[in-house]
Amino acid sequence: MADSTAKQRRTTVLAVAAALVLVAVAVMAAVWLTSRSGDDDDGADGGAVAVPSDPPAPTTGTLAPGGQDDLLPEPMGGQEAIDALGERLEHVAELNGMTPADLRDALLTTASLKVAPSGRLLYDDEMTPPPTPR
């Protein structure tokens, strides 16, 4: 009985030691991989960051967010958004990965769906506060 208890204890100790070694190796590998991702500035990769010399030319297939090419004066939804966008509805649909028919349908059937001035879709959900306990 003492032999089986000693064997069991030895097996448990070896299993725990093996698990600790595996964890240590995994941590070392993670540290090594993250240090090799270009965050260090040891000059091995030149420490250079690619920066374009000229800003990219605007394309006709996308709309620029940030107020430069605003399509709407404010977020709009439903028929109001469809009317305000007019022919630009197709561009807004493309920007959001939809067909014009799907966008039109979504705007007419989802009350909280709005088109932001930039052309991106957003949901304007109103939250009601939870009831106060009495």
TrEMBL record:
It comes from the Bacteria. Keywords: Signal. Residues 36-78 are annotated as: Disordered. Residues 1-29 form the signal peptide. This is Uncharacterized protein. It comes from Jiangella mangrovi. The lineage of its organism: Bacteria, Bacillati, Actinomycetota, Actinomycetes, Jiangellales.
